[in-house]
Amino acid sequence: MAGRGKRKGRRIPSHSHKVINTSEMGILKNLFKSWKKQADSDQSQVRGLLIYENVNEVIQAETVLKKAGYDYIRVVAPPPHYRTGCDLCLEFPIIEQVGIVRTLEKHNLPPLESVHLSEDALKPIEICKIKDFGNYLMIRAANMKLTFEKTSQKIVNISGGGCSDVPYLANEMMGKTLLEAPIPREIGYTLCAYSLAIAFEEAKNRMGGT
Amino acid sequence: MLLLAGTLPTTDIELHAGTAALQQDVLTIGDRSFPLTRGTASMIGAACAVICYFGDELPQCVVAGDIGKRSGSRLIYRHLTRHLPKTNVTVLGLHYIIPDIGLHNQVMMSIRKMRQRPCLIADAGFMYVAKASGQAPFYDLFLPDLGELAFLADDKASHPAYTRGFLIKLEDIPDKLIEHAYDTGNAAQYLCVKGRTDYICANGKIVEKIDEPLIEELEAIGGTGDTITGMVAGLVYHGFPIEKACTIACKTNRRAGQIANPTPATQIAEIITMIPQALNEIVIDTSDNNSNRMLSKNEMII
Q: What is the pLDDT of residues B184-231, one digit of tens each?
């Protein structure tokens, strides 16, 4: 049994390969390391999806996972047979499934289902367009627009969107400054809220991270 | 009958149906009052303004409180599914709702059971779900803004948030997006694209462009698209052909905005109260060129 265990003994320093004529073995070792690294990388690119009931749960799960150090997870569209028309899910490296699901369960956010991803999923838009009205700035992300007054940083209008929480979010956020307003990710439930959150974050960044 | 349906941003009501009326900046539906804010309320308010101008029968409405949790949206889908086959709705305006493809398809099945199919107008969440379900051509009119037009042009996106970047870049060339939307079967028969220039399209072709008066501030004001949708519904119900209704509504919206002299902080109720004056000017102007032949109620039913 001892012969099958890890053999004890001194390692040969890499510079000694030349001396003892085993440098080719060093090259092979490096090649093996490189191959292993490549294999690990490919494996980490095999992805899965965490499916949830609604967008709000996905946003909560994303926050929990990012705080736990899984900062490479992404929010994406679910596969067609899971779609209702307004939904998100989380894409993650399948190799990390156990740890990720355990973290979510600890925070009482277990996914409805975890599935293997067979093709590239669509990602929500994160690009913003800006329109300057002089005293006001309008930020647009996807179908959502947020306008605020530059000097007071007060949100004066929210327009666009089509999901039911848009008028609700407008009621909650308008008349408040960028600092005071509730964060759409925290009180919204839909993809429109997700887009509005991107516009809101851009507005804050433009005003120096208020 | 003109029927308008959509969610309202409240947790106070479940499903609520009744006749709508507009008094100043307060909207009443049946025995309840609602503030005239962006979304379904603005659509209904603008429709009421048009209906009152022409002295037509006030619209019937189905609304439900929903702040994004889906419960109100589900009640509306189910109400429409259950009751539409028994109604004599001639124009159906569908607005803010959480997209749910399965429930939407049940509503479509009910519409197919109606004795006479109504003119179907969809905006906001109902337009999203109509497109996502692959049934866009079944609708008579969609009213997207430019961002939503890019979504219609993207055959893979199930919501505007997923529109792919190469299509967003085409927003500066709306003609291309309109072509894509029709070519991929993701447009209704008519499109009314709301923006700096409004594009009215019929069966794949742009038939009218409206760009005056240009009131830049209107883009920032929540509800300025909803008012066009409501006015179009009222005008079609009155008997205008869809193309003409879109033209009048877009011009009236711009003129109402101009009269209100808005800033980006103006609220939509201020603009809705200007609709009767603006509509009067536009209708007189339009009737002068003698091109707005009304449709009879029978012609209107598709």
A: 999 999 999 999 999 999 999 999 999 999 999 999 999 999 999 999
**Cβ pair B165:A142 closer than 8 A:** no
B contacts of A83 (beta carbons < 8 Å): 101, 132, 158
CATH of domain B2-300: 3.40.1190.20
Please name the helix (run of DSSP H) or strand (run of DSSP E) that holds residue A22, with its range, or none. none
pLDDT at A64: 94
Residue A115 pairs in a beta bridge with A49
Task: Determine the distance in angstroms separating the CA of A206 from the nearest CA of chain B, rounded to an integer.
Answer: 18
Contact of B12 with chain A, judged by CB distance below 8 Å, is answered with no
Dump pLDDT digits (tens) for B69-112. Answer: 899 999 999 999 999 999 999 999 999 999 999 999 999 999 99
Residue B278 scores a pLDDT above 90: yes
Map out the domains of chain B as residue ranges. Answer: 2-300
Mark which residues 200-219 of B lie under 8 Å from A by CB. 216-217, 219
The reply to whether the predicted model has a pTM over 0.90 is no
Mean pLDDT of A106-131: 85
| Chain B interface disruption, residue of A91, A157, A174, A195, most B CBs within 10 A | A157
Residues of chain B contacting A194 with CB distance shorter than 8 Å = 161
B108 inside 8 A of chain A by CB: no
CA nearest B132 in A: which residue? A85
* Closest listed residue to residue B190, CA positions, set B174, B208, B173, B176: B208
Residues from chain B that touch A86, judged by Cβ atoms under 8 A, are 98-100, 125, 128-129, 159
- What is the CA B3 to chain-centroid distance, rounded? 12
Let me know if A98 is exposed, middle or buried by CB neighbors in 10 A (0-12, 13-18, 19+): exposed
Spatial separation of the C-alpha atoms in residues B130 and B243, rounded to whole Å: 20
CB atoms within 10 A of CB A149: 18
In a 10 Å sphere around its CB, with 0-12 CB exposed, 13-18 middle and 19+ buried, how is residue B168 labelled?
A: buried
- Complete domains list, chain A, with CATH: 45-116 (3.30.70), 128-206 (no CATH)
